[in-house]
Design brief:
Helices cover about 25% and strands about 25% of the residues. The chain is an alpha+beta fold. The model has no long low-confidence stretch (mean pLDDT about 95). Bound molecules: 2-amino-4-trifluoromethylsulfanyl-butyric acid (MF3) and cobalt (II) ion. The site of 2-amino-4-trifluoromethylsulfanyl-butyric acid (MF3) has 13 residues, from β4.
């Protein structure tokens, strides 16, 4: 069931989104060679709880971390660990879901650790750009497939591939709600967007082939070919004449 949110619900989600943003700012400053993903996760939890919020991912179907931290060829759902030590040249995605008074906000950023290859930087740039290209089609009356097609075309035109198995999603009282927002699809297909809908749009983009595998831990999703993967996500509100991003406050945080 797709729900439209009231102004009060939207404000609670926006508040959760501010805290997500604060987590990014805090963790970004810690991304130096030698830091473990467990240390980053601990800090994220500290920020989230200090703001009277809940780290929504913790305990979600038994997920052990406060956030997901996915390095290099890990697409999504990397479990924070004191054995995963960041090194110069890595790219690391931080996927943060926070709830405030029962309402969730979800966003992901992929950051460089130290100096990274041009190849890796291009993947980060294109992934982010595809999100902003997709935003341009959002307004009441547009279809979910309009978003999917833009994300697919933009990334594929740069030689990248998109995973089929994982998608964006509606969000609100639950972390995952209808509709599903795939990263591949056809314009004019899928549910119609309405004012007050809140959706997490999240391109997951692979440098190589789209095939993935899940590690025996049951969570960590990696590319099968071992090539890099990148993820960018925001929680977006459909407004009367377009959209509003609930997980970004200022232009330079994009
Ligand atoms: N943040 C992810 C998403 O974008 C979901 C996290 S799964 C969890 O949908 F188990 F870690 F919570
Ligand atoms: Co999401």
């Amino acid at each position: 069931m797709i729900t439209c949110k009231s102004p009060r619900e939207i404000e609670l989600m926006r508040h959760a989104g501010c805290v997500v943003d604060e987590v990014f700012k805090t963790l970004k400053a810690m991304l130096v060679p030698g830091v473990t993903t467990k240390e980053l996760d601990d800090k994220a939890l500290e920020v989230i709880t200090s703001r009277d919020c809940i780290a929504s991912s913790k305990g979600y179907y038994g997920y052990p971390g406060a956030i997901c931290i996915s390095v290099n060829d890990t697409l999504i759902h990397g479990i924070p660990s004191d054995k995963i030590i960041l090194r110069e040249g890595d790219i690391v995605s931080l996927d943060v879901v926070v709830s405030y008074q029962g309402y969730h906000a979800d966003a992901t950023r992929t950051y460089p650790v130290g100096i990274i290859s041009e190849r890796a930087q291009r993947l980060i740039d294109v992934t982010r750009e595809s999100f902003y290209e997709a935003l341009k089609v959002i307004r009441p009356g547009a279809h979910v497939g309009d978003i999917s097609e833009v994300i697919q075309k933009y990334n594929e035109s740069h030689g990248y591939s998109l995973t089929r198995e994982y998608t964006g999603h509606g969000i609100g009282k639950s972390m995952h709600e209808d509709p599903s927002v795939p990263n591949v699809g056809k314009a004019g297909s899928g549910p119609i967007l309405m004012e007050g809908m809140t959706i997490a749009i999240e391109p997951m983009v692979n440098e190589g082939k789209s095939a993935t595998r899940v590690l025996p831990d049951g969570w960590t999703v990696k590319t099968r070919d071992g090539k890099l993967s990148c993820h960018y996500e925001n929680t977006v509100l459909v407004t009367k004449d377009g959209y509003d991003i609930l997980t970004i406050q200022t232009e330079e945080d994009k």
